[in-house]
């Protein structure tokens, strides 16, 4: 049952990414005032086992035919390669890597690394994302469309931020918050402090900057054995969670062998508990896809331990069997998409 609750505000920020135009479509004033709209392009990444693609450092290279830049990056025993850039008009909630996307990247790999003899059968997993870009006249190639972000105002109080790149998310966040502060001051005489986060680390980022990161990881991982983890497991977690890692260690240390009930490694059990308590994990796909990235880089963990994770989430969050079945089907679909 859907319950609709009216909420009043002086302004509403529309930061809905690919769905920006749909939100604006509910605002008559916005449709009349701004003629610009989004165009969507798709980017695909493919993942290889490192023994199949033994890369030791990140490289960037151009494709043979269209001159686009491609990257290949080693990560946690894998190598991932991306990305494509093609116009996209299908389901925005579920973009997938199609055969032609994979073939394009395989061709680019073999052009740069001719002795690798890469083929589609070597791809372990893949994923796709959508770029919500601002339409520009005369752009026939997806790669020619600007990645610039813009803010659009409606007289209704709807403030939309559109375009941009994922890597610029903090700058875009600063822009929109400062814009709202100016709007509230101009129209409602409110004094709202502008953003001052340029020197504040993101969650887990208090590690001494890029210079101190490696030392931080090596030092903090020495604490792992005192929580029942191996030094190697502690290092793995520290690389992933940064300065939040000791909290994960603590969850490992207080399992009281509860992880065995769910047939889960202590390390994985601690990650799931941390995800529920600190990262809004509710469904298995929240953990395996959006929080840990295991679906793409540790697919065997997903296949081997999904049942235990599903049971742990259900027991802890107290949802019924129907909800569990629905969430399991969502994970099934995600696994199918990444291996298709």
Automatic annotation (TrEMBL):
Segments forming domain FAD dependent oxidoreductase: 10-169
Catalytic activity, EC: 1.1.5.3
Keyword Disulfide bond: no
Family to which the UniProt record says this protein belongs: Belongs to the FAD-dependent glycerol-3-phosphate dehydrogenase family.
GO MF annotations, alphabetized: glycerol-3-phosphate dehydrogenase (quinone) activity
Source organism, top-level taxon: Bacteria
Reaction equation(s) it catalyzes: a quinone + sn-glycerol 3-phosphate = dihydroxyacetone phosphate + a quinol
Gene3D superfamilies linked to this entry: Alpha-glycerophosphate oxidase, cap domain, D-Amino Acid Oxidase, subunit A, domain 2, FAD/NAD(P)-binding domain
Residue ranges constituting the Alpha-glycerophosphate oxidase C-terminal domain according to the UniProt record: 200-323
Pathway annotation: Polyol metabolism; glycerol degradation via glycerol kinase pathway; glycerone phosphate from sn-glycerol 3-phosphate (aerobic route): step 1/1
Keyword Flavoprotein part of the UniProt annotation: yes
Record keywords, A-Z: FAD, Flavoprotein, Glycerol metabolism, Oxidoreductase
One BP term from GO: glycerol-3-phosphate catabolic process
InterPro entries linked to this entry: DAO_C, DAO_C_sf, FAD-dep_OxRdtase, FAD/NAD-bd_sf, G3P_DH_FAD-dep
Pfam families recorded: DAO, DAO_C
Cofactor (UniProt): FAD
Name the record gives this protein: Aerobic glycerol-3-phosphate dehydrogenase
């Amino acid at each position: 049952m859907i319950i609709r609750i009216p909420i009043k505000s002086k302004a509403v920020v529309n930061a809905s990414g690919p769905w920006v135009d749909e939100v604006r479509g509910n605002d008559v004033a916005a449709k009349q005032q701004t003629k610009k709209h989004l165009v969507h392009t798709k980017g695909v990444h493919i993942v290889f086992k490192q023994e199949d693609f033994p890369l030791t450092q990140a490289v960037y290279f151009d494709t043979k035919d269209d001159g686009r830049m491609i990257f290949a990056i080693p990560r946690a025993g894998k190598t991932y390669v991306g990305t494509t850039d093609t116009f996209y008009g299908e389901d925005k909630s579920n973009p997938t890597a199609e055969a032609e996307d994979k073939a394009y990247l395989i061709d680019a790999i073999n052009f740069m690394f001719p002795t690798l003899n890469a083929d589609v059968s070597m791809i372990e997993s893949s994923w796709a994302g959508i770029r919500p870009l601002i339409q520009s006249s005369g752009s026939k190639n997806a790669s020619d469309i600007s990645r610039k972000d813009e803010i659009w105002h409606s007289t209704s109080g709807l403030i939309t931020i559109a375009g941009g790149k994922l890597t610029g998310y903090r700058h875009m966040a600063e822009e929109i918050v400062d814009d709202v502060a100016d709007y509230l001051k101009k129209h409602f005489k409110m004094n709202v402090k502008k953003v001052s986060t340029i020197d504040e680390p993101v969650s887990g980022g208090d590690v001494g900057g890029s210079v101190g990161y490696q030392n931080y990881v090596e030092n903090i991982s020495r604490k792992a054995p005192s929580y029942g983890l191996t030094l190697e497991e502690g290092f793995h977690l520290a690389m992933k969670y940064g300065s939040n890692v000791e909290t994960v260690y603590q969850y490992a240390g207080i399992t009281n062998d509860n992880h065995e009930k769910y047939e889960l490694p202590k390390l994985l059990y601690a990650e799931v508990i941390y995800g529920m308590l600190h990262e809004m994990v509710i469904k298995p796909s929240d953990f395996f896809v959006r929080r840990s990235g295991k679906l793409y880089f540790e697919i065997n963990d997903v296949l081997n331990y999904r049942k235990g994770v599903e049971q742990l989430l259900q027991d802890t969050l107290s949802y019924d069997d129907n909800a569990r079945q629905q969430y399991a089907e969502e994970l099934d679909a995600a696994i199918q998409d990444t291996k298709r």
